[in-house]
Design brief:
Largest sheet: none
Helix content: 55-70%
Shape: elongated
Distance between the termini: 44 Å
Length: 75
């Protein structure tokens, strides 16, 4: 079921939206954009995880924690 909304957005974003999306397709475009942001697809997540794994600070942090003992921690 579709629900009608009244939203507020930045003027520049609205101008770009109007230039890019045909008037009768705006609701579908906004719906798809919000859905993508809330529920990213597997490829998007995989790409993000891959990019994060190449960040140096994450690698060094993982190395620091690799020596942590797990003895006594719940399974």
């Amino acid at each position: 079921m579709a629900i009608r909304l009244n939203i507020t957005m930045e003027e520049e974003v609205y101008r770009r939206l109007k230039q890019t999306v045909p008037p009768k397709k705006m609701s579908a475009f906004i719906n798809a954009a919000v859905r993508e942001k809330l529920y990213p697809d597997k490829k998007t997540l995989d790409d993000a995880y891959r990019a994060a794994s190449r960040e140096r600070w994450r690698t060094s942090l993982a190395q620091e924690w690799s020596a942590t003992e797990a003895e006594g921690w719940p399974d």
